Sequence to fold (367 residues):
Amino acid sequence: MEQITVTSPLLPSLDEFNEMLKQIWESKWITNNGQFHRRLEAALAEYLKVPYISLFTNGTLPLITALQALRITGEVITTPYSFVATTHSLWWNGIKPVFVDIDPANCGIDPNKIEAAITPKTTAIMPVHCYGKPCDTKAIQEIADKYGLRVIYDAAHAFGVEVNGESILNAGDMSTLSFHATKVYNTIEGGALVMHDEQTKKRIDYLKNFGFANETTVVAPGINSKMDEIRAAYGILNLRQVDAAIAARQEVAKKYREALRDVEGITFFDDMPGVKHNYSYFPIFVDATKFGQSRDELYFRMKEANVLGRRYFYPLISDFSTYRGLPSATRENLPEAYKLADTVLCLPMHHELTDNDIERILAFFNK
Ligand SMILES: *Cc1c(COP(=O)(O)O)cnc(C)c1O
Fold:
């Protein structure tokens, strides 16, 4: 049987891409803030309803750069239930990660547990809108304001997500996006940083180009993380079809929910009121006793039949060798995160899943 993959990249039409490549070849301007780079930034700012955005080569460097730009040091409170890049960005800045447990209602950091983790060395909070489900940004901001902390959101999963008509990317001091091939919207590799004011945008643009403010002035020890013209052109084309891709994902989610609603031992998320979702992932949680199989048994049975789920996020970041020794990395400190990591399975979710694919996937849940 043909393989059903967990994701499938949204690809622009080759003809249209060729047309843009021709323009790039003719201009001979292939990187360094060219016309496609500027066009994609403008188009994304409008689509995402954010005031300022800066393109990057991937979704990890904006995390590292945001921490640099805000001069974050000491300790940062973050979630263990994410992709490793979240915590790695702290490590690359010499910052000590402090893990706080998550709220199983949205898989994001639990605001009620943040204050207990604050020390005199804490300078910021780095939450994740996990699976694109909005964090409790209001509660997090209240804590940040009370203690004078910065908030940088890893919004890699939250492309296009809105709460009551407002982009979730406008929360906190800055938010980062990933445009990796596996994400809802991709530029093959790519990412972005969202900020609230022009001055910050300017500083970020310097930092992603070695710190150059002009030909002869370097204002800070910057890095090279500029998106090139080819990926920017690809991104312009993909932005035109991302709404259709999200609509197709929504249909898949609808079918999954209908079929799984009455399966004993399987739980999943419904849409949150007032939230415009992007259906970036479809996590289910397996109660082994009630379902009759453990998450791993289900995962490997599916894999044998060429249906690829993903145990996302397992293991927890706090369980990787680099971070395991941290005082906040213990199972006792992170009971909810461990519970989810041990039971979660993300079902295949992308714009190209057919009814036949969905039938094959759902067959694993028939009694
Ligand atoms: C994908 C992802 C990243 C990293 O993005 P890259 O573009 O792969 O560097 C960071 N955080 C989260 C939560 C992600 O899912």
Observations:
- Residues 242-260 form the longest helix (19 residues).
- The first strand starts at residue 52 and ends at 56.
- Residues 58-60, 82-83, 85-86, 128, 154, 156-157, 178, 180, 191 surround pyridoxal-5'-phosphate (CB under 6 Å).
- The mean pLDDT is 98.
